[in-house]
Amino acid sequence: MEFEKQIKNHFLKGHEIFLRHISIDCVVFGFHENELRALLLKSRVFDKLSLPGGFVMLDEAMDAAAHRILKERTGLDKIFLQQFHVFSDPLRSHRKLLLDLFKEMKVAPGESWMFERFISAGYSALVDFTKVKPMPDILSETCQWFSIKDIPELALDHNLILEKALEHLRLQLNYQPVGYNLLPLKFTMPELQALYETVLDRKLDRRNFHRKMMSTGILIKLKETKKGVAHKAPFYYKFDLHKYEKALKVGMGFQL
Amino acid sequence: MEFEKQIKNHFLKGHEIFLRHISIDCVVFGFHENELRALLLKSRVFDKLSLPGGFVMLDEAMDAAAHRILKERTGLDKIFLQQFHVFSDPLRSHRKLLLDLFKEMKVAPGESWMFERFISAGYSALVDFTKVKPMPDILSETCQWFSIKDIPELALDHNLILEKALEHLRLQLNYQPVGYNLLPLKFTMPELQALYETVLDRKLDRRNFHRKMMSTGILIKLKETKKGVAHKAPFYYKFDLHKYEKALKVGMGFQL
DNA sequence: TCTTATTGTGTTAATATGACGCAATGTAAT
DNA sequence: ATTACATTGCGTCATATTAACACAATAAGA
Questions:
Q1: How many H-runs (helices) and E-runs (strands) does chain A carry?
Q2: Using the CB atom, is residue A233 less than 7 Å from strand D?
Q3: Among A6, A20, A74, B164, whose CB has the most other CB atoms within 10 angstroms?
Q4: Phi and psi (nearest 5°) for B145?
């Protein structure tokens, strides 16, 4: 079977393509139906779900590797991506997970670079949920969105990685307009507020929120209102791309 | 000569002790005479100065490796240490630097793990200047403090790493009481202010600064005043360790 | 047409911030 | 000893920011 052959080749020869000891794990955040979500893979061989990840090619920058990996999982090219932490516990390892698979494939642990220790760089990706076409990798059967509130036990230290990514996102939301990357081009104020409330995990005053957001000058109000909605139709807004770029560097200068 | 033998051994056998492709670079910040300073090493063999660094042992956590490296350079055990960025440009490499040395030592580039590509984790260390005893490593002849305002051209991408560390420190100073780690146990308010002004690189109003610092409740005013000083003697202060720990996690909730 | 949930905008009181005044203090010069 | 002076500690005030809340406008559905 082609699939098994590819896997076995990866185990035995992968180190001729990729750097040893270094892996990448990505937390892909999306926002949909007032829920913050992350992409998770269901492995063909392991029980637990895991974060999308991969390895760094011998002559590739780590950021480039993360972009390459995410292009494969989401179909997206220009993703807002940041490394946020490196996980280096010497006990974090695929060893236990791989033992059965190795036996089945008749690969001796000592033969494979995958059986060695890995240090993993955590990357946080913020994407427009509506633009993503989740695609599983060769080892997985599904790639799906999971609400942050409803994350099961993950493989390895992936729960820890996800937690750290969330913490990073919360901190960042306080001084950078990262909402831009999580929302479609046009969005309503209630949607933007829901995003902030979900990420920060607390309620915000609707009117004060509106005032603060507008005071940054980063939002442009459109003439168009949302259609087919009960009650008063909210206006659409979009980000002023130029001011967004500036605020990314300088910060927004307010606290929520 | 024992020195050359050790170096050669490190080049040829180091990969039996350390992980390939992974290095650590530390930016050690200290504060002295109203200047923010960093530790730099003067190599025995290279022209340019460089940051203290090292490698990760086969079974060692990265944080532990950084602590081990800094213990060797500063003599200090419990250092406030944080990874802040990973530098992974595939062109960053010791290759050029090592070529002459390899020739001299009759080591073929292909024989040594040191000639391979390295991904480096940047660590930022905040230390009490007065507690540090700078010690050069085996490849260096000196280990000395340099004022941040007066950093020469460094080896590899170390200028970039230092810049990133400084940026990280500036951001952090705005929401965490990191001054604690850079000052001795007791210090005066003008000293604390000088630290903030140096790191943030701007003047602050003396009286407003005093008010804000005290409003955090994180400082304890001592009865003792500074002796042997011209003009009015300022009081000493110390950090309330309990509140400091809390503020590290929660943040300080003010902007300077 | 009326009800109702939701949105857009305004008001006000409390709080935080920035800019500055002034007396107290301790060293050094006279 | 007296005085000059730079610096510290504490206070004031005008202004900006924030939090809490009121109310009219809107559009779907009864």
A1: 8, 10
A2: yes
A3: A74
A4: -80, 140
Q: Closest to A22 (Cβ–Cβ): which among B22, B61, B63?
A: B22
The residue whose two tokens read 């603060």 is A212
Choose among B52, B31, B47: nearest CA to B153: B47
Per CB-CB distance under 8 Å, the chain B contacts of A19 are 20-21, 117, 119
The pLDDT assigned to A255 comes to: 65
C24: residue with closest CA to C1':
B232
Q: CA–CA separation, B145 vs A227, rounded Å?
A: 64
Amino acid letter, residue A102: F
Non-local CB neighbours of A108 within 8 Å, separated by 6+ positions: A102
d(CA B191, CA B34): 7
Please write the tens of the pLDDT for every residue from B56-91. Answer: 999 999 999 999 999 999 999 999 999 999 999 999
CA-CA distance, A148 to A9, in Å (whole number)? 35
Residue among A153, A256, A118 nearest A199 (CA)? A256
B114: its two tokens: 């040191």
Please give, rounded to a whole number of angstroms, the shortest distance from the CA of A88 to a CA of chain B: 5
Cα-to-chain-centroid distance, residue A88: 20
Q: How far apart are CA A36 and CA A28, in angstroms?
A: 10
Interface of A with B (CB under 8 A): 19-22, 56, 58-63, 83, 85-86, 88-90, 117, 119, 121, 253, 255
Helix residue ranges per DSSP H, B106-188: 158-173, 179-182
pLDDT digits (tens, 9 = 90+) for B149-201: 999 999 999 999 999 999 999 999 988 999 999 999 999 999 999 999 999 99
Beta carbon of B193 within 7 Å of strand D?
A: no
Phi, psi of B255 (to 5 degrees): -115, 140
The C-alpha atoms of residue A102 and residue A123 are separated, in whole angstroms, by 28
Average pLDDT over residues A148-173: 96
Q: Which of B114, B102, B98, B94 is nearest to B15 (CA)?
A: B114
Closest CA to A3 of A183, A188, A141: A141
Question: Who wins on pLDDT, A111 or A27?
Answer: A27
Cα-based distances in Å from B21 to B56, B78, B118? 10, 27, 4
Residues of B with CB under 8 A from a CB of A: 19-22, 56, 58-63, 83, 85-86, 88-90, 117, 119, 121, 253, 255
**What's the whole-number mean pLDDT along residues B118-138?**
97
Q: Shortest CA–C1' contact from B235: which nucleotide?
A: D8
Kindly list the residues from chain B whose CB atom is less than 8 angstroms away from the CB atom of residue A22.
Answer: 21-22, 119
The H or E element that residue A32 is part of is strand A18-32
Q: How far is the CA of A208 from the C1' of D23 (A)?
A: 16
Contact B63 A22 (CB under 8 A): no
With CA atoms as reference, report the closest residue to A13 among A138, A97, A114. Answer: A114
